Each structure stands twice: as C-alpha cells, then as structure tokens.
C-alpha cells in the first residue's frame, strides 16, 4: 500500500554552544555511537545494555522533557510474564492473540511471551520493589511456594501473570532505571531536548542521527550516530481525552514517516475503559487491576452490565469493555459509569492500590465506601513504525522499540500489561542486533549541514498553534473515536488535511518551539490514523465502523508506505 503525505523540509540554526545540566560541554554538533530518543522503559533498558560495563558503547539519551516524564511513569498495572508454574507460555500466547482479534503476529507474540520472565528477573536483580504476597493483607492471590511476588490477573488473561509494584509499577521501574543511567560513565543524558527530524545520508538510504532543539537554550543541534533508536512512546495525545502525559505526541512515528519508513496498524488506538471522571481530575487512570481484584462496572442505578456484552464480564479485553461503556453512556444519556470495588476491605485497597486510593480521596471519593466514576480515554497506540523482530525499521541504521514500534505483538487490541513486557523484550532484541551490526559497521563520517534559519522569523502571535492543537484533538475525538463511520472518517480526513497544510506553512516560516514541533507531529500522525482507518473495511478489535460491522475471515495488517 502506498500513500503520499507532504513532508516538511528540514530547517537549521547557526552554530552556537549549548550547555545542559546533565551533559557537560555540549556543542551544537555532537557525536555518539548510539542515539536513543526517548527515556521510557524501552529506551533506558536498551541504553544500559549497550553501554554495558566500562568499555561498552557510548550512548546518548535524548528526552524532550525530564527523564521521568513519559508514559512509563504513569503505568499502574504491571508487567505480564509467565511466572507461575500453573501458567504457561502457550496460554500467554493464546490470550494475547485472542485479545488482538486475530491480527497479532504469532512470532512476535512468542518472542515476548518467551523472554518476558527473563526481563522480569533482570529488573528484580536491579532492585525494582515488586509487591510481595506477605505485604498484601487479605490477598486472594494464588500462592507460589518458591516465588514471593504477588501476581494479579487483568482483563483478557486466563491466569494471574501480572507482576507489579502496588499500583505504581511504571514509576518504580523507571526510578531504578534512571538511577542506573545517571551513574553510568558511558551514557550521556540530554533532557529537555526535543527531536526535530532524523538525519539521512545523501542517498537517503541510512539514518545517521537526528536534529534536536535544546528547549532551554532555544538552539538546534545535530547529533551524528552510528545507530539511532526511536523509543518516543505513542500518540494518544492526538485525542482530546487521554490517560497519558503530554509527551505522547507521536514524535518518533512522524519522524520515521518523514524519513521514508513504513508504518502499520495506525487505526488501532486503545481506549482504556476506566479513566477517572471528575471535574478536578479527569486524566487519571484507574488500573485494570481494580477489575482484576473483583471490581464491577455499574450504571448509576447500580446495575452491572458487562455480562450482557461478554461472558468474561468485567474481565473482558479492553476493546470490548470500552465499547460497552461507550454504548451504555449513549443509550442512557449519562456522563459516566461507575466502578465498584467496595466489597474489598479498606486495608486491602490501601495496600494494593495506594496511588488510586489516595488520588481518589483527594477529590472526595473513598473507594472503600463509594463507587468510582469512570469513562474511557485514549490510552495506547497499537500501531507504529514497522519493525522486524530485532527492532529494525525499513531504514538502515534506524531502530524503533516500545510503543513507537509496530512489531505485530498487539494486533487489533493490546492485552493488558503486555506493553512494558514488549518494551523490555525488544530492548533486548535490539541490543543483540546492534551489537552484531557493530562488528561489521564502519563509523559514520558524514559532515552534517547546520540548521538553516534563512528567512525564519519569530511569530507575531502563537494563537494558531494553540487553536490547531485543540482542533485536531477534538476532530479525532469526535470522528475517529471508539465507534466510527465512513462519513465521520471522511470529515476528519478533510479537516486534518487542511490543518496539516496550515501547520506546514507555519513551520516553514517561524522559529521552532516545542509546541510547534509537537503539533507538526500530532497532525501528521492523526492523518496517518485516519488514512489507516479508511483502509480497513471491517470491524476488528479497537477499530469499530458502523458501516462495516462484520469481521473478515482473513486478518491483514494495514501498512502505509511513504513515496
């Protein structure tokens, strides 16, 4: 499949010095062996593996905000892996493929299911404080005599296989990884640096680094690298309501597309069924694990409704639960539904869900006594930059891992807690691939052109950025949401195409800012999502089109190729 979208030409800035706290003596032009763009679980894990012991590879980590400000930090539930002897890799594979609505790549699923436990063991060795059984009062967990850690069960899983650190797993893992990279002599950190575009060789056949904007100094630098890794997360910020932080703007996907890489399955954006609905706190996720511990979704009158939609009830996969909530809200004209976990004792809830308990209490909800108002919100990008099982993209020298990548693992819907597992496992796969490539690789010697600012001016007003940022997200929410139609998609495509042209013109004429760069990426990724949705003439997993309610017998991914 081919599709052309107008890509934006590169711009540049004159050579000046740039100083940051973490990276001492940084010039406008930098050189490293491996450039990792993104500081989530995938990027940091890979950086530590490549840097290795003293004498390992020189690695530079680029983060557009603080190192900890990404989706990993907000991941509550846990990491899926076969750790219980009563469980099996075959069962994990089957659950993943079932949740993915038949669109998963069995080879990718097998890689993650097979290597996830090993990745967990490495985190335990690093000191990640996973919750233990004896610390959870009144736990209903299945006890494994030789395994001290608590395992929970989430929607779509047939066994308890989700290891977690209370309800702040991502934060706990990230804290350990950040501590490790900060003290590693082979790793250079560049926080508050947002990537602009990838740098290619003259024939555009290989990636040789990236341009980046130092947000504090407001200067552009070029970073040359033998290998570049995109680990920038997903694109859920394309929607008006999301459980993810402001960093989820699809930067890596957009940069890869502009560089000529294929993208796949962009129509599948997962909506987490349970995001807190409260005027003081509407972007807070209520973990899947709450339903895993017996939480029941109810209407305002107390009626439980999930068994009407799936025999697994409240533990059905996320796409089914999100659509059910959406339908009940529309049917009854209500603003939200309610998640009831009041049958569990307060001590259990405080031990098992401390973050959720305290966050809800701050807005006046005692979850041991009151039901939690919830609505679906955009959560996870199941598609992304097409890669192989080693993390390699279709552009030589460029890798993509984590939520940025389309590996085939998630298919048409992600199984809960497979995301952190994917990030860890494909960090290992990419590490092995890059190590192998270094054995025959000739160091990059290309001279990189400085960022050209000829004819560029400071904008007299920035209202276009804020206006277009809001409009694209509202268009996506209204027309490309949980339930779609051909007419809605057509309207979205027309409006986003106009926004794309407008942003493209603004980008070419004005100095760069973080908001402008994110908007540029956001509009492009939104258009890729709509294009992919229009290609899929069926309903499958996260893509539900009222004009094509049936599912084809043969499942095929949607792959777009830039010209």
Q: Quick gist of this model?
A:
With 563 residues, this protein is α/β, with parallel strands linked by helices. The protein has helices at residues 41-51, 89-99, 106-126, 169-182, 251-258, 288-292, 318-332, 346-352, 354-362, 418-438, 463-479, 486-509, 514-535, and strands spanning 29-37, 59-62, 79-80, 151-152, 162-163, 187-190, 193-200, 207-214, 219-230, 263-264, 269-276, 296-298, 337-340, 372-381, 384-386, 398-400, 405-406, 559-560.
Question: How does this structure look, described?
Answer:
Helix 3 packs across helix 10 (418-438), helix 11 (463-479) packs parallel to helix 13 (514-535) and helix 12 packs antiparallel against helix 13. The chain has 4 domains: 33-72 and 188-268 and 380-406 and 427-438, FAD/NAD(P)-binding domain (3-Layer(bba) Sandwich), CATH 3.50.50.60; 74-171, no CATH class; 271-379, Succinate dehydrogenase/fumarate reductase flavoprotein, catalytic domain (Flavocytochrome C3, Chain A, domain 1); 463-552, Methane Monooxygenase Hydroxylase, Chain G, domain 1 (Up-down Bundle), CATH 1.20.58. The protein contains 13 helices and 18 strands. It has helices at residues 41-51, 89-99, 106-126, 169-182, 251-258, 288-292, 318-332, 346-352, 354-362, 418-438, 463-479, 486-509, 514-535, and strands at 29-37, 59-62, 79-80, 151-152, 162-163, 187-190, 193-200, 207-214, 219-230, 263-264, 269-276, 296-298, 337-340, 372-381, 384-386, 398-400, 405-406, 559-560. 54% of the residues are buried. Strands 1, 2, 6, 7, 8, 9 and 16 form a 7-stranded mixed sheet that branches. The chain has a 4-stranded mixed sheet with strand order 17-15-10-18, covered by helices on one side. Strands 11-14-13-12 form a 4-stranded antiparallel sheet, covered by helices on one side.
């Amino acid at each position: 499949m081919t599709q052309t979208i107008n890509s934006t030409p590169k711009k540049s800035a004159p050579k000046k010095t740039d100083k940051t706290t973490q990276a001492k003596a940084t010039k406008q032009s930098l050189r490293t062996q491996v450039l990792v763009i993104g500081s989530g679980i995938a990027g940091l894990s890979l950086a530590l593996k490549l840097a290795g012991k003293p004498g390992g590879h020189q690695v530079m980590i680029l983060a557009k905000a603080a190192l900890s400000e990404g989706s990993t930090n907000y991941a509550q539930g846990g990491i899926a892996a076969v750790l219980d002897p009563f469980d099996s890799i075959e069962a994990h594979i089957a659950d993943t493929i079932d949740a993915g609505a038949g669109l998963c790549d069995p080879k990718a699923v097998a890689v993650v299911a097979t290597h996830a436990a090993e990745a967990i063991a490495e985190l335990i060795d690093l000191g990640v404080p996973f919750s233990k059984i004896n610390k959870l009062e009144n736990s209903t967990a299945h006890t494994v005599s030789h395994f001290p850690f608590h395992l929970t069960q989430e929607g779509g899983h047939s066994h308890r296989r989700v290891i977690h650190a209370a309800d702040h797993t991502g934060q706990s893992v990230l804290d350990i990884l950040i501590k490790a990279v900060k003290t590693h002599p082979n790793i250079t950190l560049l926080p508050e640096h947002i990537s602009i575009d990838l740098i290619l060789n003259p024939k555009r056949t290989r990636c040789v680094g990236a341009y980046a904007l130092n947000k504090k100094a407001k200067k552009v630098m070029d970073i040359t690298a033998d290998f570049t890794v995109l680990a920038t997360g997903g694109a859920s910020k394309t929607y008006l309501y999301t459980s993810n932080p402001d960093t989820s703007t699809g930067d890596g996907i957009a940069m890869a597309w502009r560089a000529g890489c294929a993208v796949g399955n962009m129509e599948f954006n997962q909506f987490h069924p349970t995001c807190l609905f409260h005027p003081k706190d509407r972007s807070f996720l209520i973990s899947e694990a709450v339903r895993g511990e017996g939480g029941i979704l109810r209407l305002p009158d107390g009626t439980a409704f999930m068994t009407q939609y799936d025999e697994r009830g409240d533990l059905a996969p996320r796409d089914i639960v999100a659509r059910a909530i959406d339908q009940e809200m529309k049917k009854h004209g209500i603003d939200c539904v309610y998640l009831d976990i009041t049958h569990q004792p307060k001590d259990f809830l405080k031990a098992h869900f401390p973050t959720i308990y305290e966050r809800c209490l701050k807005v006046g909800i005692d979850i041991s006594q009151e039901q939690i108002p919830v609505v679906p919100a955009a959560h996870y990008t199941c598609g992304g930059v097409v890669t192989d099982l080693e993390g390699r993209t279709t552009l030589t020298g460029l890798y993509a891992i984590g939520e940025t990548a389309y590996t085939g693992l998630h298919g048409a819907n992600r199984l809960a807690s497979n995301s952190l597992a994917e990030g860890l496992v494909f960090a290992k796969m990419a590490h092995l691939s890059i190590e192998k490539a270094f054995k025959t690789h000739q160091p990059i010697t290309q001279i990189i052109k400085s960022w050209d600012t000829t004819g560029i001016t400071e904008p007299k007003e920035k209202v276009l950025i804020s206006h277009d940022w809001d409009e694209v997200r509202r268009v996506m929410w209204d027309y490309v949401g949980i339930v779609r139609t051909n007419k809605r998609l057509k309207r979205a495509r027309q409006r986003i195409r106009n926004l794309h042209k407008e942003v493209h013109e603004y980008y070419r004429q004005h100095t760069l800012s973080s908001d402008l760069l994110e908007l540029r990426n956001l509009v492009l990724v939104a258009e890729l999502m709509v294009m992919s949705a229009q290609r899929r003439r069926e309903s499958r997993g996260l893509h539900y089109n009222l004009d094509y309610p049936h599912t084809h017998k043969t499942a095929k991914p949607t792959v777009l190729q830039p010209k």
